[in-house]
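#lab-general

N.A. 3:47 PM
ok so I finally got the sequence cleaned up, no stray characters, all 123 residues accounted for. can someone with queue access submit it? mine expired

B.Y. 3:52 PM
send it over

N.A. 3:53 PM
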Amino acid sequence: MKLGHALFVGVAQAIALIPGVSRSGITISAARAAGYRREDSARFSFLLATPVIAGAAVLKLNNLSLHGESLNAFVLGTLSAAVVGYFAIRFLLRYLERHSLNLFVWYRLALAGAVLLVWAVNR
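B.Y. 4:20 PM
back already:
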């Protein structure tokens, strides 16, 4: 990936600070707009999340008091999340080799419509 493209995707990631904007969705879309294949865009998006997740974990670790059973639960939860995350990413990368992102676009549009409908009814 060229530096300019990486910066473009990085700026797109910053837009995900806006509530409701999917970080992976916007970074994959930005990489696609820069001309990259679906699988490469998704792979870069997941790699781009690594420092963000690691940084958040380091910040939160300072607030935890882990010992005894809570340490065991923390380690088990972390390992479970890592395994499930690995398989979820692997599934999505394989899915993107054969399918477009249209399913996710329609899902987000349908969800937005449902949220607006609930909001309008409850006003």
